[in-house]
Predict the 3D structure of the following.
Amino acid sequence: MISEVLLFLVEQLNAYLNSRGGWSPEQPVVDRVTLPDGETMDPISFKLGALTALLINLEEETTLRDADPYRRTGVDGTVVRVEPEIRMALYVLFVARFKQYDEGLRYLSMVIRYFQRHRVLDHRNAPGLAPEIDKLVVELVTLPFSEQNEVWNALRTTYHPSVLYKVNLVVFRDDEEEAGPEISETVLEVTR
């Protein structure tokens, strides 16, 4: 599911950048946004002449959890015990590496513009979204300088112009799970 989200975001940004890039129609369509090459991960190296989308963190989203995540009510009204879904937030860093510094900044500006206009990506406004993903909510994250320094030190490379986004609600659920036994009553014991 994580790879589907990253590939989807790369595809959406490439379509946007190719439609708004300002180059002539005779120029071949080029992927302006890529994922890192697995062979250049330690230390990481970013593709020249492109933006690289890099997953730098995963975080479980617990604030939207059901009151009793192990309890579900079926269509027929029976209450069963199930394993709860896991809701994840992905932190995706878009890094610009271009020969011309201003060109990298231009592409970063276009990424910011795209996500400003498309903060919520769902099946209505993004038909290429995988069926198992209801929607993605994208929000800009601004790290303090000290935390930015820690990110770039962890990547073991020099700083490049970049922008960080939090992509919310990647939901992992087991659709093939077998429902547990029916729950007829709940007993609460309090001990001192």
